[in-house]
Amino acid sequence: MYKRFIGISALNYYLAPSNLSNEELNSQNPSWDMKKVTERSGVLSRTVAPDGLTALDLSHEAVKCLINTDEHILSEIDALIFCTQTPDYLLPSNSNLLHGLLKLPSNVMAFDINHACSGYPYAIGLAKSLILSEMASRVLVITADTYSKLAHPLDRSVRPLFGDAASASIVTNCDFFNIVDQTFGTAGIHSSKFIVRNGGMRHVKENKSTSKLDSSLRIHSLDHIHMDGMGLLSFFNKIVPTSIYSILNRNNLRIEDISYFVLHQASQLALDSLRKSLGVPAEKIIIDMSDTGNLVSSSIPVVLKRSIEKGLFKKDALLILSGFGAGLSWGSVLITV
After folding, report:
1. 20 to 30 A from 334, CA-CA: which of 31, 166, 177, 212?
2. Of 152, 175, 198, which marks where a domain is finished?
3. pTM for the complete prediction?
């Protein structure tokens, strides 16, 4: 284990203000089998950003929540990492825009990363690396996504899953949530399993999106998320346990030594499947998404903060954080409380 303590000293989040319940979804889509949708997703309602509310807006509110706990919390920030796949503009980056809103000093390094569900492990890993290399000493890590805007309204495999939110964390020299070790991976060869094909420079967004019915009778378009749900589940069922066992072995730990596993809240089906693959008791897997949905890059930090508020984590507890999603990418982090 590292002798130097670098960890998450503060954390907060902001959920999009609108709420879309399963009852509302069912009234809009009477043909959907909502019982099956609910069982597979584990979501009863999801937070949705209304038109005009963006990832930047959500992130600003998340930072305000941090400031409400400590008005001086942004003092001495010297780096800002903003993780999002739904930026406000193609350019400039959301990190630059948030830097301006917060009126941070000009010597603050600011950049975006566009990882999604693996974004929080990646971002705090990058923050720790900046501190270890002495390029920064106090890093503001932001996650924010509005995936509801990327979901086709008639796609029953995607729309019921995702919610919108942002989180704000401070990573610095501290031993509150000490980042002990991390491991990351990429499988770009499978990138088409989770993709929005239009909107970049290769395929510009269509003025009039054409909806299509796929072989599973799901409606989607090239302007919206296309997700191979079963393909993703099969892939991550193999790779996520490997990632977690790798970090455990590197630190001479066993599954039994870990107090809680805070996994990306992909869906009830995914979490149940991963729990079985890992051989972890149900009480050690935190599932907390029924009233938010899958919050993409913010799912892990939101669960962390809610668990802290419940007093779930005791002193010296060992946690494994693991995120996985678009890219395909994944990352696991070992934390000591």
Report:
1. 166
2. 175
3. 0.94
Secondary structure letter of residue 114 according to DSSP: -
Task: Tell me whether residue 221 is in a domain.
Answer: yes
SS (H, E, C) 116-153: CCCHHHHHHHHHHHHHHCCCCCEEEEEEEECHHHCCCC
The pair of three-digit structure tokens given for residue 114, joined into one six-digit string: 């566009």
| Beta-sheet pairing, 260-263 with 318-325 | parallel
Q: Which helix (H) or strand (E) holds 208?
A: none
User: Do 170 and 27 belong together in one domain?
Assistant: yes
pLDDT tens-place string over residues 258-296 = 999 999 999 999 999 999 999 999 999 999 999 999 999
Q: Are 320 and 296 in contact (CB under 8 A)?
A: no
- How far from each other are the two terminal CA atoms of the chain, in whole angstroms? 14
At 21-63, the pLDDT tens digits run 999 999 999 989 999 999 999 999 999 999 999 999 999 999 9
**What is the distance between the alpha carbons of residues 253 and 57, in angstroms, rounded to a whole number?**
41
Mark out the alpha helices in the chain (DSSP H runs). 22-28, 34-41, 55-69, 94-102, 119-132, 229-250, 268-278, 299-309
Residue 306: give its domain's CATH number: 3.40.47.10
Clarify whether residues 29 and 138 are in a common domain.
Answer: yes
Number of domains in the chain: 2
> For residue 75, what are the domain limits?
6-175
